Amino acid sequence: MPELLDAAAVQPADRPAFRLRVPTEEDAYAWHRAFDDPEVMEFHGGRPAELSAYHEFTARQRRHDAERGFCLWTLLDGDGEVVGFTGAQPWPHAWGPVGAIEIGWRLARPAWGRGYATAAARETLERVRAAGVDHVVAMVDVRNARSVAVTRRLGMALEETLPVPGRDGASCHRFGLRL
């Protein structure tokens, strides 16, 4: 059974209860369902990914956790339902902050506005710090006000704005945080 990280004990009472776990093979299906929403995918290519992409993605996260002690974990609400993911991984692209550790999150629309992203990202920062990481970045589409707000609540500072290759007119803010 995958390791569950129960953050409820460290969260203030006004924050949601949640758990993080290393993604399972079954989580590929859960993520596919949770993110099969144009609004969720608005800043991630605009359309839902194929199921096969989530199988590869969850497998890559299991490898990251085994090798590094952190990954993009499956985020479960207090009832144990998958509501998305949050965590950290090496930046996966040939552009942008190559070699950096990226913190990220993506939630199903019903979980928006409930504090999950910020609370789970704070737990992520503690986990990556414990793994010896001293700096993280967050790459956020400049139009994504909700995620920009999460970076600010985490104390991240805007480092630069970068164009997104292959997406005309799209750009991302790079936020950084020294741990």
Protein model, in words:
With 179 residues, this protein is an alpha+beta fold. The chain has one domain (4-178): Gcn5-related N-acetyltransferase (GNAT) (Aminopeptidase, 3-Layer(aba) Sandwich). The protein is built from four helices and eight strands; from the N terminus they run E-E-H-H-E-E-E-H-E-H-E-E. An eight-stranded mixed beta sheet has the order 1-2-3-4-5-6-8-7, with helices on both faces. A hairpin with a 7-residue loop joins strand 7 (157-163) and strand 8. Helix 1 crosses helix 2.
Which value, in Å, is the CA radius of gyration?
15 Å
How many discrete domains? 1
Return the average pLDDT rounded to an integer: 92
For the biggest sheet, the summary is: 8 strands, mixed
Compressed to H and E, one letter per element, the order equals: EEHHEEEHEHEE
Distance between the termini: 30 Å
Features:
Aminopeptidase; globular; alpha+beta; 179 residues; 4 helices
Annotate the secondary structure layout.
Blueprint: E1 4-6, E2 18-21, H1 25-34, H2 51-68, E3 72-77, E4 82-90, E5 101-107, H3 116-130, E6 135-141, H4 145-153, E7 157-163, E8 171-178
Parallel strand pairs: 5-6
Antiparallel strand pairs: 1-2, 2-3, 3-4, 4-5, 6-8, 7-8
Helix pairs in contact: 1-2
Quickly describe the structure.
With 179 residues, the chain is of the alpha+beta class. The protein has one domain (4-178): Gcn5-related N-acetyltransferase (GNAT) (Aminopeptidase, 3-Layer(aba) Sandwich), CATH 3.40.630.30. It has four helices and eight strands; from the N terminus they run ββααβββαβαββ.
